[in-house]
Amino acid sequence: MANDNRVALVTGSGTGLGKAIAASLVNEGMTVVLTGRREDVLQKASEEIGKQQTLVIPGDMTSEASVQKLRDELLEQTDGRLDILVNNVGGVPARGPIDDLTLDQWQQVIDKNATSQFLVTKYMLPALRKRERGAIIAVTSGLAHFYMKGFGAYSAGKAAAEGLIQTVAEEEKANGLQVELLDPGSVATDVNPHGENDPMDVAAGLVDMIR
């Protein structure tokens, strides 16, 4: 994909795996839209990755209004183009045994890992359908299929996201969209310093997935 001039949106791209994915796509020649809640972190990532090939549009992927605003600003700044969506946002804002979790904690985890993917996919799909090689890559987790004490909400969120994305893959076959899941394994990041996988290696694997 050398000199690839497509436009990609990577959610949660200020740090960690999302930042590595954005850097790898820029290395292929793409313009990458960086998004997440912390504008200062996104701006720093843009400077490190390359300001000429990145656009910074902050947003909260769990808020419908924020995602709609992201879509509108992205399409305005890219002349209506969006070729690739990487649904990377996720995490564990709360954990613990099910009987200790509050409903608010449960909802936070579900929103971060499943609702975010629903909203971003929903509002970016019309633009992606217009592209010749549109693609959606959704980052998932092995905890959608195996289970650890204290991570019930997270497992439920990732399983819900997988079901959503697999359904989108079926629904979008007729439109020629590539829709894939990526399980990165345990990635070494600031919040998971003992992770086994280098984020740049995982990002390289994602680049190889894209047609």
UniProtKB/TrEMBL annotation:
It comes from the Bacteria. SMART domains: PKS_KR. Keywords: Oxidoreductase. It is an enzyme of class 1 (oxidoreductase). Gene3D superfamilies: NAD(P)-binding Rossmann-like Domain (3.40.50.720). Its EC number is 1.-.-.-. Residues 6-185 form the Ketoreductase domain. CDD domains: SDR_c. One of its GO terms (molecular function) is oxidoreductase activity. Belongs to the short-chain dehydrogenases/reductases (SDR) family. This is SDR family oxidoreductase. It comes from Lentibacillus kimchii. The lineage of its organism: Bacteria, Bacillati, Bacillota, Bacilli, Bacillales.
